[in-house]
Design goal:
Length: about 110
């Protein structure tokens, strides 16, 4: 069976158009400046916080995040012991300097 002349021409034109589109797209992305460090953190970013194995992330994450001025996104317990923290870069720096365990709540005693 013989392929029509227009069928071959149409396939070649389609192939050439696809090649041209891919090469133009790759040139457009390759021409942009590349920042090796990455973008500066936004006003509120997500940070991964790792904790010592002696601490339970589910128990201490909310208190640590609240004291640093952020909130907990999720906790991790299988691959690492920690949590995802959503907050400003200043809050993340404060969290990095915070002691690993929040102080225990004050206890009240009643004398009998």
């Amino acid at each position: 069976m013989r392929t029509s002349r227009w069928g071959k021409t149409g396939r070649r034109a389609l192939l050439m158009t696809m090649i041209l589109a891919v090469s133009v797209a790759s040139l457009a992305t390759a021409g942009g400046a590349v920042d090796p460090v990455g973008p500066a953190p936004s006003a509120s970013s997500t940070w991964i916080v790792t904790l010592d194995r002696t601490l339970d992330a589910k128990d201490v994450a909310a208190g640590l995040a609240r004291r640093a001025g952020g909130d907990v996104v999720t906790t991790y317990e299988h691959v690492l012991n920690g949590f995802a923290f959503n907050g400003s870069p200043a809050a993340a720096a404060a969290l990095a300097q915070a002691p690993a365990q929040p102080p225990p709540p004050p206890r009240r005693f009643r004398l009998v």
